[in-house]
C-alpha cells in the first residue's frame, strides 16, 4: 500500500504546531512534514517532535541555499538526537526569483549545488559520528575545519534520511541518484505526469550510482479538494483553482503545462502577473485543468480516488491536516485505507 505523511499548514502559528502534530499522530500518519515558509522549518519540526512520541517528523522543503550546510547540518543533527531517530531532512532549491530577491542569495544552477550540499552534509555527519577528518572540497562548498571542542557529539541514530524537492529533469534525477525520497510539487503531481516524466527521470539518476528505483520513495503532493459533502468539495476546489493559477504564473512550474499542451496558459498567467493583474488569473484555470491536477472527492471516497490515480505511480502521499478537528476521524479512515491497516 502507500506511505502517508501529513503536511502542516504554512499559515499554522508556531504555537499551534504541537497540537496539529499530535492530531496527525492520533490519525495514524506515518510522518508529518514541517513547512519552511512563514515560520522557520527547523522550529516547526522541533515543536512537532516535542509534541509526539511515534510519528516521524521532517522538513518538507527547507530553503537550504541561503543556509550554510554547516548550520543546516547542526540543526538536523540536534533534531535527530532530540527525536531519538525520527527526523527526516527535506531540502528544496526554491525558484530563482525568491533566492535572489527574497533571500538575497546568489543564484547558481540548483542541481550541481544541491549535489554538493548533500555531499557536504554527509561529510559533516561522518566527521561528527566517526571522527573522520573533515575535508570536503567542492565548487560551491568547502569544509576543512572542525575543532574538537565545538564538534557535535556522536548520536544514537546518525543516519538521517534526506528528502529532495524537484520538478525539472536535473533535480528529479538528483533525487534518484542520492535522495531517500522525492517530494513532488502540487503543480507537477498529476499521475500521468508522474508516471511518464518524473519516474523516468528518477531512474536516470539512479542508474548513475547503481541504485534501485525502490531506494528513492516518491511522494505525490497534489492539492486535494475534499470535505464532508459535495458542497465542501466544490468550495475547496475553487480555493485550489485560485492558488494553482498563481503558482502556474511562475515558469519554473510549467513542466506539466508543457506535458499537457497548456504552455500558452502559463505564458498568459505570467504576463498578467507582470501587468499586476492578479484578479484576472483565476479564470485561466479551466475545469479541465482542475480535473487532471486536483483529486476531488468527499472523505468517504477519497482513499479510493487516490488509489485509482496513483496505484503503481507513487509510493506515498502528503495529505493536509483538516482545518476543523471534527474531520480528523474521517481523515484517519482515509489514512488507514491508504496504508492498508
Write the layout of secondary structure elements.
Blueprint: E1 3-7, H1 14-26, E2 31-34, H2 41-50, E3 56-59, E4 62-63, H3 69-82, E5 87-92, H4 96-101, H5 110-130, E6 136-137, E7 142-143, E8 162-165, H6 169-178, E9 181-183, H7 191-209, E10 217-220, H8 230-247, H9 255-260, H10 263-274, H11 287-293, H12 299-310, E11 316-320, H13 328-339
Parallel strand pairs: 1-2, 1-11, 2-3, 3-5, 4-5, 5-8, 8-9, 9-10, 10-11
Antiparallel strand pairs: 6-7
Helix pairs in contact: 1-2, 2-3, 3-5, 5-6, 6-7, 12-13
Question: What do these coordinates show?
Answer:
There is one protein chain. The protein is an alpha/beta fold and 341 residues long. The chain folds into two domains: 3-237 and 296-339, Luciferase-like domain (TIM Barrel), CATH 3.20.20; 238-294, no CATH class. It contains 13 helices and eleven strands. The chain has an eight-stranded parallel β-barrel with strand order 1-2-3-5-8-9-10-11, surrounded by six helices. It has a two-stranded antiparallel ribbon with strand order 6-7. Helix 2 (41-50) links the parallel strand 2 (31-34) and strand 3. The chain is globular and about 60 Å long. The termini are close together. The mean pLDDT is 96.
Amino acid at each position: 500500500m502507500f506511505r502517508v505523511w501529513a503536511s502542516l499548514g504554512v499559515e499554522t502559528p508556531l504555537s499551534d504546531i504541537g497540537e496539529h502534530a499530535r492530531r496527525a499522530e492520533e490519525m495514524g500518519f506515518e510522518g508529518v512534514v514541517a513547512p519552511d515558509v512563514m515560520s522557520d522549518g527547523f522550529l516547526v519540526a522541533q515543536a512537532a517532535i516535542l509534541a509526539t512520541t511515534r510519528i516521524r517528523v521532517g522538513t518538507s522543503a527547507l530553503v537550504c541555499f541561503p543556509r550554510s550546510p554547516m548550520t543546516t547540518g547542526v540543526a538536523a543533527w540536534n533534531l535527530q538526537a532530540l527525536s531519538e531517530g525520527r527526523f527526516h531532512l527535506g531540502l528544496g532549491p526554491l525558484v530563482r526569483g525568491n533566492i535572489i530577491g527574497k533571500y538575497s542569495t546568489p543564484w547558481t544552477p540548483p542541481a550541481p549545488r544541491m549535489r554538493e550540499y548533500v555531499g557536504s552534509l554527509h561529510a559533516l555527519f561522518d566527521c561528527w559520528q566517526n571522527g573522520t577528518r573533515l575535508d570536503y572540497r567542492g565548487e560551491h562548498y568547502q569544509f576543512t575545519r572542525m575543532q574538537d571542542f565545538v564538534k557535535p557529539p556522536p548520536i544514537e541514530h546518525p543516519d538521517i534520511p534526506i528528502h529532495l524537492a524537484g520538478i525539472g529533469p536535473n533535480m528529479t534525477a538528483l533525487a534518484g541518484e542520492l535522495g531517500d525520497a522525492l517530494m513532488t510539487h502540487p503543480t507537477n503531481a498529476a499521475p500521468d505526469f508522474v508516471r511518464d516524466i518524473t519516474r523516468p527521470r528518477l531512474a536516470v539518476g539512479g542508474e548513475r550510482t547503481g541504485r534501485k528505483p525502490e531506494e528513492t520513495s516518491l511522494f505525490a503532493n497534489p492539492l486535494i479538494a475534499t470535505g464532508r459533502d459535495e458542497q465542501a468539495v466544490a468550495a475547496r476546489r475553487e480555493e485550489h483553482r485560485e492558488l494553482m493559477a498563481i503558482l502556474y504564473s511562475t515558469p519554473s512550474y510549467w513542466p506539466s503545462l508543457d506535458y499537457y499542451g497548456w504552455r500558452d496558459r502559463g505564458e498568459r498567467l505570467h504576463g498578467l502577473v507582470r501587468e499586476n493583474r492578479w484578479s484576472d488569473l483565476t479564470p485561466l484555470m479551466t475545469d479541465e485543468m482542475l480535473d487532471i491536477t486536483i483529486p476531488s472527492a468527499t472523505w468517504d471516497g477519497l482513499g479510493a480516488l487516490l488509489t485509482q490515480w496513483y496505484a503503481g505511480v507513487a509510493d506515498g502521499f502528503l495529505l493536509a491536516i483538516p482545518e476543523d478537528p471534527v474531520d480528523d476521524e474521517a481523515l484517519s479512515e482515509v489514512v488507514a485505507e491508504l496504508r492498508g491497516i
